[in-house]
Amino acid sequence: MKFVTTSPQETVRLGEALGAKLKGGDMVAYEGGLGAGKTTFTGGVAKGFGVKDQVSSPTYTLVNEYTGTGKRICHFDMYRINGEEELETTGFYDYLDDQTVMVIEWSENIASALPENTVRVKFTILDEQTREIEITGDDRFEDTGDRNFLKDGFGGCG
Ligand SMILES: Nc1ncnc2c1ncn2[C@@H]1O[C@H](COP(=O)(O)OP(=O)(O)OP(=O)(O)O)[C@@H](O)[C@H]1O
Ligand SMILES: [Mg+2]
Q: What CATH number did the domain enclosing 63 receive?
């Protein structure tokens, strides 16, 4: 599914639509360059999954954790990670469990460590305010934020 958003708020709402469909154990891998909207989108994912709506960039910490009742999002930034050995030092493998959604910025850098059933989200900058966001995953995501997601109100930003 491909979407085009024309503001950060729209990107948050699309993230929310995805977050509402996630369950513990899911891996969500982002691709797309600097400033493409990955952290912005994650704010919506957390809200939709029901853990927290204040998300900040894990640029310096490598991973931020957001928890709710019986569930957790671990939000990684792999920008500076290269290779399997460095990945292990981030604790990546220790965070995996069936209550946790893993959200990975710069997943390009850990491509070989991603499971087959990874949900992929690809961000492309079209212009200053416009992003193309492509979500690829299993059947659950087929109607993610159907074309009316901006009007029909995920989270009441309407
Ligand atoms: N349609 C849009 N969707 C998302 N962000 C947008 C959009 N239009 C403009 N922006 C701006 O683009 C920037 C996106 O920043 P964000 O931190 O989310 O990107 P990122 O992909 O996480 O970058 P990095 O790789 O540096 O971590 C923000 O400043 C946001 O306001
Ligand atoms: Mg970011």
A: 3.40.50.300
**32-61 pLDDT, tens digit each:** 999 999 999 999 999 999 998 799 999 999
Tokens, residue 126? 């079209």
Does any domain span residue 89? Answer: yes
Ligand located closest to 8 CA = 1
Report which protein residue has its CA nearest ligand 1's atom 25: 34
Q: Is the CB of 108 under 6 A from ligand 1?
A: no
Whether ligand 1 lies within 6 angstroms of the CB of 8 is answered as yes
What type of residue sits at position 15?
A: G
- Note the pTM of the prediction, 2 decimals: 0.92
Any ligand 1 atom below 6 A from CB of 36? yes
Taking alpha carbons only, the member of 46, 70, 50 closest to residue 58 is: 46
